[in-house]
């Protein structure tokens, strides 16, 4: 391997790793550290303040234990300064709901919660998230003033005036806390140079090294097509005596990635471009939350399940529970349970989707389909490990075989277990998909869920599902 090739591999791997890790290139480490302390600090300050207000200061040992536990659970805190205020409030509320539930469950199970005054606990449950939101808003304001008052920014250039190059420029403009300014683009292709947008085209690739030295450029983004390997190596070789930080933005990253990240096979670095989000600790969190929540839900709805089973059985001939073959994890067939809502139990190579005023739907079936009660037996599928509470909805095998040939990326949704509810369902893609574009919209939302999964997102979807069950006009 030549020196240029070795350097390109090192620079490329570094750029890929930083992109996947979500590091803000050129951003201030002090900003990042400070923002990661906002949530832990607000949680602890509210607890300490209430402890001083309610308790004799000589009896604070249990508060110290709780404070240490809370810091371990909340640090590092979420960095929310770049999103909307609405998204900030939502993320804090969902995150706090999960954390508070965990702490309360632990306190109740161990009796530790009895050491704290009830009024203190109730006040803290409300004050802590309010303080976190206030802390994030305060940080956003202060950081914005500091950034806007800076006398100097890092000068950045983008090599490649194409789609991904312009996206990098937009991200830099959108995130001022990066502390960067785009001086312009460099590109050899005349067709792309003509529509550069807000930043000018400063020259061709052969001009990059001279410009970097002359104008003290600190950051260079290489947004060239991967087919341009020879040009990239030549450019890197010309930049070897500069001190600029170089980041590679290959065109693979503007394709439809699922859980993209750096990994390794032994000592060989590899890039995951399509993988399940539920690997390692994420898989443990997902399965653990499924077991706990499904057990709790089944205990709460047990009387309802019994009543519905009797009504279905008494009002039409046939079994109360309808079993249907669906595709599950890795595209393998599973058996899914539902309350029977039709006069037929179809599970063949051709299945007609339910439509409005479908004569196959029974009167009781119409009600349980409208309210999604027919799906409740699938919580037993969750306990069996065949399904998850949140995930892409399972389709009949016949529908899968049809749509996998028509929709690009359709089978990627089977990288995870199917769900009782999903991101598509709470975003209006529920009910009959009589046209291909409706199914494509559903699949797009399923893939978006895979890209952005988090426990907070699962809790948000569950909450949205409960609300939508009673007013979703697309269900029948």
Task: Based on the model shown, name its key terms.
476 residues, alpha/beta, Rossmann fold, 3 domains, five-stranded parallel β-sheet, two-stranded antiparallel sheet, 11 strands, 50% helix, 11% strand, flat, disordered N terminus
Write the layout of secondary structure elements.
Layout: H1 3-21, H2 29-36, H3 38-54, H4 61-74, H5 85-110, H6 118-148, E1 154-159, H7 163-174, E2 180-186, H8 190-193, E3 201-203, H9 208-215, E4 219-222, H10 229-238, E5 245-248, E6 261-265, E7 268-272, H11 281-315, E8 321-327, E9 333-339, H12 363-370, H13 378-384, E10 388-390, H14 397-403, E11 419-421, H15 436-451, H16 455-468
Parallel strand pairs: 1-2, 1-4, 2-3, 4-5, 10-11
Antiparallel strand pairs: 6-7, 8-9
What coarse outline follows from CA principal-axis ratios? flat
Spatially, the strands of the biggest sheet line up as 3-2-1-4-5
Give the helices and strands as they follow along the chain. HHHHHHEHEHEHEHEEEHEEHHEHEHH
What can be said about the biggest beta sheet?
Answer: 5 strands, parallel
Rg calc: 27 Å
Helical region count?
Answer: 16
% residues in beta strands: 5-15%
Mean pLDDT: 78
Question: How many separate domains?
Answer: 3
Low-confidence stretches: 1-27
The proportion of residues forming helix, as a percent range, comes to: 40-55%
Structural class comes to alpha/beta
Distance between the termini: 63 Å
Q: Using DSSP, what is the number of strands?
A: 11
């Amino acid at each position: 391997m030549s020196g240029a090739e070795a350097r390109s591999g090192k620079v490329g791997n570094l750029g890929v790793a930083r992109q996947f890790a979500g590091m803000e290139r050129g951003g201030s480490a002090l900003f990042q550290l400070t923002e990661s302390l906002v949530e832990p600090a607000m949680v602890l300050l509210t607890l300490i303040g209430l402890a001083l207000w309610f308790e004799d200061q000589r009896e604070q040992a249990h508060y110290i234990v709780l404070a240490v536990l809370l810091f371990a659970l909340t640090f590092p805190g979420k960095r929310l300064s770049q999103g909307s205020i609405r998204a900030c409030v939502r993320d804090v509320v969902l995150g706090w709901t999960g954390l508070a539930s965990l702490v309360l469950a632990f306190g109740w199970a161990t009796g530790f919660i009895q050491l704290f005054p009830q009024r203190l606990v109730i006040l803290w449950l409300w004050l802590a998230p309010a303080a976190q939101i206030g802390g994030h808003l305060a940080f956003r304001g202060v950081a914005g003033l500091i950034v806007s008052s800076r006398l100097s920014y890092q000068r950045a250039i983008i090599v490649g005036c194409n789609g991904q190059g312009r996206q990098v420029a937009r991200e830099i403009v959108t995130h001022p806390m990066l502390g960067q300014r785009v001086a312009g683009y460099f590109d050899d292709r005349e067709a792309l140079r003509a529509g550069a947008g807000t930043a000018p085209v400063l020259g061709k690739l052969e001009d990059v090294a001279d410009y970097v030295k002359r104008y003290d450029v600190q950051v260079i983004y290489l947004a060239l097509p991967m087919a341009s390997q020879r040009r990239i190596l030549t450019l890197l070789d010309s930049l070897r005596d500069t001190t600029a930080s170089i980041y590679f933005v290959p065109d693979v990253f503007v394709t439809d990635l699922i859980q993209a990240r750096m990994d390794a096979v032994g000592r060989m670095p590899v890039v995951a471009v399509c993988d399940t989000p539920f690997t390692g600790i994420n898989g443990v969190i997902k399965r653990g939350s499924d077991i706990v929540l499904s057990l709790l839900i089944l205990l709460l709805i047990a009387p309802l399940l019994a009543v519905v089973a009797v009504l279905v059985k008494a009002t039409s001939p046939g079994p109360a529970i309808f079993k249907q073959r669906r595709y599950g994890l890795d595209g393998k067939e599973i058996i899914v349970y539902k309350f029977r809502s039709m006069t037929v139990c179809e599970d063949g190579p051709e299945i007609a989707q339910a439509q409005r005023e479908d004569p196959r739907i029974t009167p009781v079936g119409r009600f349980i389909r409208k309210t999604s009660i027919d799906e409740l037996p699938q919580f037993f599928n969750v306990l069996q490990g065949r399904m998850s509470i949140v995930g892409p909805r399972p389709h009949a095998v016949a529908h899968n075989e049809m749509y996998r040939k028509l929709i690009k990326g359709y089978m990627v949704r089977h990288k995870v277990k199917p769900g009782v509810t999903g991101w598509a369902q709470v975003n209006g893609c529920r009910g009959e998909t009589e046209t291909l574009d409706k199914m494509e919209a559903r699949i797009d939302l399923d893939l978006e869920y895979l890209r952005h999964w988090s426990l907070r997102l699962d809790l948000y979807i569950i909450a949205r599902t409960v609300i939508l069950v009673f007013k979703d006009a697309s269900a029948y």
